[in-house]
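We modelled the chain as a single entity of 323 amino acids. Its sequence is:
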Amino acid sequence: MSKKRIMITGSGGFLASNFIRQMIYNKHYNRLYDIVSIDRVSEASILNSIYSNKNHEFYIADITDEHIVNIIMEATRPDIVLHMAAYTSVDESIKDPSNYVLNNVYGTQVIINASIKWKVKKFIYTSTDEIYGQLNNENEPAWTELSPPTPRNPYSASKLAGEYLVKAAGSTYGLDYYITRCSNIYGTRQTHNKLIPRTIKSILDNEPIIVYGKGNNIRSWIYTSDVCSAIIKIIEDGQNSEIYNISSNQEYSNIEVVQMICNAMDSGYSLIKHIEDPRPGHDFRYALDASKLKMLGWEPKVKFKDGIKQTVDWYQANRYLFR
């Protein structure tokens, strides 16, 4: 049986770099799939996350460059495209919305165009739970895939726009697509502008741990390996033109997350510093119902406390990557 080829965009990113490793480390999937990936490598440190392997063919390319994307697609002819490349910081999107529209919207259209042109059989678009907006209290039910999207910041709006482009390509050109909406992901190789690695770094460097407001904003957290297994399940068993929520239903407030990291490192409690929330319209709570995905036979495996311990251990052993 010939191997299928998966093209992954944004392979230097947090989720994509972990996904590639998980596919190659697993002997079963390594026999079934070869990996092709692209990343524009906007910073030299991104190369720390790129996984070099005989079953991983890597190209430096910008997803907004239609010419180079088409050259790579023609040369590699992937069966499946996993479009993960995106700008993901809400704070940065508020400062510079145009850059998010360029990369997350136009860049997505470039990848769609090339996928149609080179007859990709499956197109998986990784979106976010943030497209749903916010839940206003702890008692509201979690979002299902049928909940209405109400994005509240430029980042989530750009990701929803990408979803609509994918859906339009399905209706207009017959592109077989699958959309994932995932809750907050954590784990190894995440950039330190995100809450968990930023907190770990602050403790390692003996610097203030910045918490917005009282830290009462609530997020549902899922470990990166569970997200990767969910995506694999969708690739293999998902239904065409469907949206799948990915969540482990483990909800914690920001201050609870910070305190759990302090507990895992047995340090940092005195470094916690509450400041006025600088983010306009900071969403209060996110929560996803992943029942639809679980009907395919997927289940998350990593408990939050265990995932935090694994994440802390990795960052302590790889402090040089913070520099």
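As a brief sanity check on the tokenised model: Residues 2 and 186 are 34 Å apart (CA to CA). The domain at 4-189+221-249+287-302 is CATH 3.40.50.720 (Rossmann fold).
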